[in-house]
Specification:
This is Deoxyribose-phosphate aldolase. Keywords: Lyase, Schiff base. It comes from Tritonibacter aquimaris. This protein has 324 residues and is of the alpha/beta class. It has one domain (49-312): TIM Barrel (Alpha-Beta Barrel), CATH 3.20.20. The protein contains 13 helices and 10 strands. The chain has helices at 22-26, 32-41, 50-62, 75-86, 91-97, 114-120, 142-154, 166-170, 174-188, 205-217, 236-253, 268-281, 299-312; strands at residues 3-4, 64-67, 99-100, 106-110, 128-131, 159-163, 192-196, 222-224, 258-260, 294-296. An 8-stranded parallel β-sheet has the order 9-8-7-6-5-4-2-10. Strands 1-3 form a two-stranded parallel ribbon. The structure holds glyceraldehyde-3-phosphate (G3H). Residues 67, 69, 108, 227-228, 262-264, 295-298 line the site of glyceraldehyde-3-phosphate (G3H).
């Protein structure tokens, strides 16, 4: 029997946000040593049995925002990336595994590349995500950042990855963070918004928890760890803090907010650890592309190598799995 990777879940009600409840935001706790203890156990555990590993790796592919965010991006590179998003695994490998219809969760590019990606993905149902709002620093004037969102939406982006102003968090200006996020969401219209917290620049896990709560209250559809450009990007402790904030927000409001760890996730085995963390902390509903994505430029290549090994018993050279 062949298996397809189509989603079998009901469509979500989009997070509408809530009024700013500063007491709730500031009450967020993050016990660093308990968090680190919990995370230290994760990679060592055999969370996914060997027989199930290939299926989990295919699942991971369906959750990747296949990304290129380089100063030397070209239309040709973006078109090659889109071809990879449409067919992330060679047909003979997929056939051997009895799977059909696999594609990545999205393709993620800078604004200038949105149109090219939208054209290259026409008819596939794969959304294009644009990093807008002065990515990665988010330090251009607010009207320009809002205009960039408008332009990305006009160009056909269905997802907008915004960067928050870290200075609002570091200066404790929570109202400004809330207002900014609300404006980003309003300008995104029907496009879903992922709020990049740039957690490596927020100073503490407690700030990560607080910023997560504020962004969700202001209507973020996803919260995302990093741009991939900070010196520290996605980590398990930060992930635990953010997904527990998602869980608390869901318990409080009934809204489902998605999670996107991004930056530095390049190994299949690390992806499996993230998936088991999500399963344990949030449950299976969050293991669907509408609620979970990996932001990654090179993870797919390693997953393809591991799948090849699973099928043939041998690894091929990593240059056989080039991305762009
Ligand atoms: O949002 C995605 C990140 O920029 C990708 O980071 P990476 O190149 O370390 O995988």
């Amino acid at each position: 029997m062949r298996t397809t990777m189509t989603a079998s879940h009901q469509e979500l009600v989009r997070n509408a946000g809530t009024a700013l409840d500063l007491d709730w935001a500031l009450a967020a706790q993050a016990n660093t040593s308990a968090i680190e203890r919990r995370c230290a156990q994760l990679p060592g555990r055999r969370s996914v049995k060997k027989d199930h590993q290939a299926a989990w790796l295919l699942k991971a592919i369906s959750l990747i925002d296949l990304t290129t965010l380089s100063g030397d991006d070209t239309a040709a590179r973006v078109r090659r990336l889109c071809a990879k998003a449409r067919q992330p695994v060679r047909a003979e490998l997929l056939n051997a595994l009895g799977f059909d219809g696999l594609h990545t969760g999205a393709v993620c590019v800078y604004h200038d590349m949105v149109e090219t990606a939208v054209k290259a993905l026409d008819g596939t149902g794969i959304p294009v995500a644009a990093v807008s709002t002065g990515f990665p620093a988010g330090l251009s004037p607010l009207p320009l950042r809002l205009a960039e969102i408008d332009a990305s939406v006009d160009a056909g982006a269905q997802e907008i990855d915004i960067v928050i102003s870290r200075r609002h968090v570091l200066g404790g200006d929570w109202q400004a963070l809330y207002d900014e996020m609300k404006a980003f969401r309003a300008h995104s219209g029907d496009a879903h918004v992922k709020a990049i917290l740039a957690t490596g620049e927020l100073g503490s896990l407690r700030n990560v928890a607080r910023a997560s709560r504020i962004c969700m209250m202001a209507g973020a559809d996803f919260i995302k760890t990093s741009t991939g450009k900070e010196s520290v990007n996605a980590t398990l402790p930060v992930s635990l803090v953010m997904i527990r904030a998602i869980r608390d927000y869901h318990a409080r409001t009934g809204f489902y907010v998605g999670y996107k760890p991004a930056g530095g996730i390049s190994k299949a085995k690390d992806a499996l650890v993230y998936l088991s963390l999500i399963k344990e902390e949030l449950g299976d509903r969050w293991l669907q592309p509408d609620l979970f994505r990996f932001g990654a430029s090179s993870l797919l290549g390693d997953i393809e190598r591991q799948l090849e090994h699973h099928i043939t018993g041998a690894y091929s050279a990593s240059n056989r799995h080039a991305m762009g």
